[in-house]
Write a structure and sequence with these properties.
This protein is an alpha+beta fold. The protein is built from two helices and four strands; from the N terminus they run βαββαβ. The protein is about 20% helix and about 45% strand. It is elongated, with a radius of gyration of 17 Å.
């Protein structure tokens, strides 16, 4: 099993969610997060320009069986990309085991 974590633009969340559903990924968690990155965000308030490096993003966490890894990553890459700095990152890590709390069942079948 793989844990896929993605940090994406908040404006692309709906497209990513729909793309994940289309490939059969129907369960994931997400959070609104603030971070620092290479993107430079400028704001104008009452005619005064200022910049901040605090960037609002959405953090998505998905655990999938190994056979869903590539399609999940492809779905995120295609739907989250704008081609501009600040599109985000995807991180992939191994998951040792998964348990379904309700039944005590373990393994990859718990993800279905």
């Amino acid at each position: 099993m793989k844990k896929i974590e993605a940090i994406i633009r908040k404006s692309k969340y709906r497209a990513v969610k729909e793309s994940l559903h289309e490939v059969g990924v129907n369960f994931f968690s997400y959070w609104d997060v603030t971070g620092l990155g290479n993107e430079k965000v400028g704001h104008v308030y009452r005619g005064v320009a200022y910049s901040t490096s605090d960037i609002q993003r959405r953090y998505i966490s998905i655990v999938v069986n190994n056979d869903f890894e590539e399609v999940t990553i492809k779905a995120i890459l295609e739907s989250a990309s704008t081609g501009e700095v600040g599109d985000g990152k995807i991180f992939v890590s191994n998951v040792e085991e998964c348990y379904r709390i309700r039944t005590g069942e373990k393994g990859g079948d718990t993800l279905k």
